[in-house]
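Quick one before lunch.
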Amino acid sequence: MSAIDLQRAGQPLLVETFAEWREAARELLVHDVPPALVTWSTPSAGGDLFSAAPPAAGQTHNPVEMPPAASDKPRHAPPSIPRSLMDMLQSAACCRVPDRWAFLYRVIWRWQQGQHDVQSPADEDGARLHAMVKAVRREEHDMHAYIRFRERPLEAGPPRFVAWYEPQHDVLPQVAEHFVSRMGKVSWMIATPEASVLWDGQTLHNTGPLVKNSEDLEDTGEALWLTYYRSVFNPARLNQSVMQQHIPSHRWKNLPEGKIVTHMISEAARGARKVGQYEAVGQRKGTTIPIAPEDAQPERQQPSKLDECRRCELWQFATQGVPGEGPKKARIMFVGEQPGDQEDLAGQPFVGPAGKLLDQVCEKAGVDRDSIYVTNAVKHFKWEPKGKRRIHKTPAQKEIEACHYWLEKELAHVQPDVIVALGATALKSVMRTANVTLKNSIGHPVFHEGRWVVTTYHPSYVLRVPSEEAKREAFRTMVESLKLAHDLLNRQPEEPPASSLDS
Ligand code: URA
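Model of the uracil complex:
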């Protein structure tokens, strides 16, 4: 029966997969059926029914009176939904919340009604959608990171590797794809309480649950894994709170090393930490700089993709990482602070009001903005809620430092001759110290790490400053700074630049 017929008959739409939901939603949308009239059901919910208003206990669902538009003739053309929204809906569909299908339908219905802010985190539904997507992405990431395959004896036949995991969301299919590309032709199986996937070296097979718990899986590979884990465990690097943040305790129970980690932590606290470091340092050649073991830094992740970055906490609250943009070999690089609300949604730097002001500065200085590489010191939007809005929050020094990793990559690729630091955060990032001030740096370019650094105001300052005169003055300073940056392109470090900003 079609979605419309089922609804007419008062029967819920039984949906298990995103593809099924999409087909039903499409049919409902072309017949103009509002979310309040649709009742969704999911097999895994044990027959629970969800709609905008679920029936009270003991009630059955009455046949639904469809709006006149839901006659047999479609009322609308099939909806055209942007790829970005469809991707979000598909991710959110993996989030284990009981009303997921009803919620997704409300979102898509509102979009179709022209309420495009439903995709924005400032909207109530949009915020929930973003939170669901984030939860699912986090679960995918965790599953990539914390799955442990155990090897089975060759004579036991395939699969050669088995893993048990208890995901909190329905991410097994996409995680399985990830391991297909990582594990080559060897056969493996991932078992979860709800489903299992088996890779035979060529094809993925999806099945229902095959085992009840991790004990059911072959344990042959475990001893080997524990030996390996012990050998790579470096007590000198141990930072227990970071480790616990990275591997929440509820994950440890399914990690083979979970059984020995507590023991190793207490060993480390009792002195193995010192010993571990002395040994490692002692084996190195050349000068050694003594560092107290307790000051040793935890090793940060070195991701290759911005959206996989977990070097600080900001990724959790942003829609996406915003990389720099501009010609590959630009000679001038603008470094701003961090993406704003609009940049966070668009995934591009300086596309909001601050970007418009930057355009005006470039025009006035006679420098083609398209010739400049534009980026930020921090690549994720840091914000706090204020009513429905997301208000910018200044990044902390540790976040600036964590993100310097990306700025370094951009500098290495673009190799600009001059950096224009827009505001204090950019200045601290570029100079790699918190001991610099905007006031002392504006009008005083420095030659730093092989290139000129010119400091100026951040465009948001010009937009915010209340007095008209101060606004004009700050704008003028920005224009002069950019002209100076342009002049420096052809100047050697020995030649002191003439600055017209000193007066
Ligand atoms: N402010 C910044 O510093 N960067 C942007 O990309 C936008 C606003």
